Automatic annotation (TrEMBL), chain B:
HAMAP family: NDH1_NuoK. This is Unannotated protein. Keywords: Membrane, NAD, Translocase, Transmembrane, Transmembrane helix, Transport. The keyword Disulfide bond does not apply. GO terms for molecular function: oxidoreductase activity, acting on NAD(P)H. InterPro entries: NADH_UbQ_OxRdtase_chain4L/K, NUOK/Mnh_C1-like. The lineage of its organism: unclassified sequences, metagenomes, ecological metagenomes.
């Protein structure tokens, strides 16, 4: 079905960004309200579209809109078209819904910032780009949004770019994303070369005709793209530094929406991955590695935002793992993505609220006992916490346990390995999240007298409350009668497979809960019953030290990519100055030198010229004489 | 009389003129030496005309004389002008093009 209102989803926030950026300081007084209204308008359009889709029969729910013919070269036709199917609309509601809440939050959070209008312009631009990403009906349209969110992320991480470290963090994120973007562009090129089309519909129809090799290549390249955007191993190093951005940005872009674009890409490309088992396995393995990687880093971070960032990385690892498990996992990956969007955004906003009350202190070792001073923040953060560690009936319990269960039931050694990793991750998650909550809200106060912790204003806690409600109820709502799974079925073709399962849902839930209890218990013993030092202890194992430094990922990148790259550029520079410039300068120097030599013959004395003429004449005569002899 | 003797005289005159041009500094003398070389050539032309029994060489000799006359007019005028401005007729002093 076609719908003419799809474009308004993107146009409203884009218009907001344009107005706020172009009108300059004139819109300082009303810019934040205007930006929020644009985002809310987009949300309203999204809800109306969702209701319209609900009213249609299952097979005819997808809405399309052709905007204009974009590229038309021979047989290569790309239309700028929008597609809102069951998968896209989930993202649309998440992006605009959470996005609007975070706009509201930012009105208060950024109220003291002179550049608040610019901040809202970027936020609106991000919403527009992200919506284009999920609404594009071809890989090329998706790519435009993909680059747009990368730009928005860069601008917002470096929003306070007067601090050089923040500007560096923005650059780091941008460069890491570029590596992933290259994967996406290569995937599009391979898809066009082998299938002759880049639209989702076309690729889906023609995928079965392509060889497994080229499908695997496309799949791997899409995975590279996903690792860059979604901070998955081995391109995850930028996410921790991205916390340099204002906290609402961390909540919206680096927790709820943009970093999940990789999961969207893989789920959207299910028709490729289902035909390329190797690429699909690679996706699952990357997800499993990252969920452990992020969880381990999360245990060692004292910066509340970096701990949450590591947790985001880990949770997206779960989603990627789910998406890598094929048709059985897509729906649960998306479910975890949506529930994670609620609880992680809520917790980030909670962290922002804590920072707001603590003079922008981020070190959890300088918090402690804040629940008395910030009851609403504590309650909302606590609900998010219960959701992320997977306590029933909160959202994370439904989504995460399902992924663990599907992983175990993937069959054979693969299933056991992936399932064990996911279970272990759940235990570590419980540990580090409990640690965050205890260090921040429980125990005795460890801040100095300069801080005056207080509850945040209404505009800040209201979005947190709404997100907390989402973290409580969304899992139950999505699971009831398999509603989300059935909803997504036309897109991802979920086949409920309950035969030959290794562990039943009940066993997985009990196992997970036991491990979560162990993790929580250990954290309580370590941080609640024992004194927490204000400075991180230095006499720790090498492993902890490594975890504090992001498991040496930066060192690895520096040693393997940055230093050789630097040597290469330096070598090229030397080659340029010595070889190429040397050759050019050498020719010039030769001309100057020979000119100097010849100049010596030009004495200016007439008699010497006469001498030369005479000598030449004699030589001429002598030559003729010798020749004729 | 053997015509070759005229050629010897011509060569001798030319050599004297050439040496004069190279070793003397006074512009007037150098100029006269140039004339001497021209006349040596004329003598050689006339001699060859006599040896070969045609008038080609004599025609060239006349031609040379006309050109030499023009050259004397121009050359002397230049030398006089240089002398007036520099108070010297030395060819070594007139080396301004070097700088």
């Amino acid at each position: 079905m076609t719908s003419n209102s799809l474009v308004y989803l993107i146009a409203l926030p884009l218009f907001g960004a344009a107005v706020l950026l172009l009108s300059g300081r004139r819109s300082d007084r009303w810019g934040h309200i205007f930006g929020t209204l644009m985002s809310a308008g987009s949300f309203a359009v999204g809800v109306s579209l969702f209701l319209k889709m609900l009213g249609n029969p299952t097979g005819e729910r997808a809405l399309t809109q052709k905007l204009f013919s974009w590229i038309s070269v021979g047989s290569f036709q790309v239309d700028a078209g929008l597609l809102a199917d069951q998968l896209s609309i989930c993202f649309v509601l998440l992006i605009t819904g959470v996005g609007t809440l975070i706009h509201v939050y930012s009105i208060a959070y950024m109220s003291h910032d002179l550049d608040r209008r610019r901040f809202f312009a970027y936020l609106n631009f991000f919403i527009a780009a992200m919506l284009l990403l999920v609404l594009g009906d071809s890989y090329l349209n998706l790519y435009v949004g993909w680059e747009g969110v990368g730009l928005a992320s860069y601008l917002l991480i470096g929003f306070w770019n007067q601090k050089p470290t923040y500007a560096t963090a923005a650059k780091k994120a941008f460069v890491a994303n570029r590596v992933g973007d290259m994967g996406l562009s290569l995937a599009i090129m391979i898809a066009f070369a082998t299938l002759g089309t880049v639209s989702f519909q076309g690729v889906k129809e023609h995928a079965s005709q392509a060889s497994t090799g080229s499908l695997t290549a496309i799949g791997i390249m899409l995975l590279v793209a996903a690792t860059g955007k979604s901070a998955q191993f081995p391109l995850q190093a930028w996410l921790g530094d991205a916390m340099a951005g204002p906290t609402p940005v961390s909540a919206l872009i680096h927790a709820a929406t943009m970093v999940t674009a990789g999961v969207y890409l893989i789920t959207r490309s299910n028709f490729i991955f289902d035909l390329a088992p190797i690429a699909q396995l690679a996706v699952a393995i990357i997800g499993a590695i990252t969920l452990l990687f992020g969880a381990i880093i999360g245990m060692a971070k004292d910066d509340i935002k970096k701990a949450l960032a590591a947790s985001t990385m880990s949770q997206i690892g779960y989603m990627v793992l789910g998406a890598g498990l094929g048709p059985a996992g897509y729906a649960f990956a998306i479910m975890h993505l949506l529930t994670h969007g609620f609880f992680k955004a809520g917790m980030f906003l909670g962290a922002g609220s804590v920072m707001h009350g603590m003079n922008d202190e981020v070190n959890m070792r300088r918090y402690g006992g804040l629940r008395k001073f910030m009851p609403i923040t504590f309650a909302t953060f606590g609900l998010g916490y219960l959701a992320i560690i997977g306590v029933p009936p909160f959202a994370g319990f439904y989504s995460k346990d399902k992924i663990i269960e599907v992983a175990f039931n993937a069959g054979g050694f693969k299933g056991i390995a992936l399932g064990t990793a996911a279970l272990l991750g759940a235990m570590i998650t419980a540990f580090y999240m409990t640690r965050v909550v205890i260090l921040t809200f429980a125990g005795s106060k460890r801040w100095d007298d300069k801080a005056h912790p207080h509850e945040s204003p209404f505009l800040m806690w209201a979005p947190m409350v709404l997100l907390a409600l989402g973290s409580v109820a969304s899992g139950f709502f999505f699971t009831r009668g398999n509603s989300l799974r059935n909803w997504l079925a036309p897109v991802v073709e979920a086949t409920p497979s309950h035969e030959g399962e290794l562990l039943s849902p009940a066993v997985v839930s009990i196992l997970a809960l036991v491990l979560v209890a162990i993790g929580v218990g250990y954290a309580i013993i370590k941080y609640l019953l024992n004194e927490v030092p204000q400075v991180a202890p230095a006499d720790v194992t090498e492993f902890t030290k490594a975890a504090r430094k992001d498991l040496l990922q930066d060192n690895f990148n520096e040693a393997v990519f940055m230093r050789p790259g630097q040597s290469l550029t330096r070598g090229l520079q030397v080659a340029d100055t010595k070889l190429i410039d040397g050759a050019v300068h050498g020719i010039a120097r030769f001309a100057i030198g020979s000119g100097n030599l010849l100049r010596k013959t030009q004495t200016g004395f007439v008699r010497s010229y006469a001498m030369w003429i005479l000598a030449g004449a004699i030589a001429l005569v002598a030559t003729i004489w010798v020749v004729t002899l | 009389m053997n015509p070759a003797n005229y050629l010897y005289v011509s060569a001798l005159l030319f050599t004297i003129g050439a040496i004069g041009v190279v070793v003397r500094r006074n512009a007037i003398v150098v100029f006269m030496c140039v004339e001497l070389m021209l006349n040596a050539c004329n003598l050689a032309f006339v001699t060859f005309a006599r040896i070969n029994g045609n008038l080609d060489g004599q025609v060239v000799a006349f031609f040379t004389m006309v050109v030499a006359a023009c050259e004397v007019v121009v050359g002397l005028a230049i030398i006089v002008t240089i002398y007036r401005s520099r108070r010297s007729a030395s060819v070594d002093d007139a080396s301004l093009l070097k700088r």
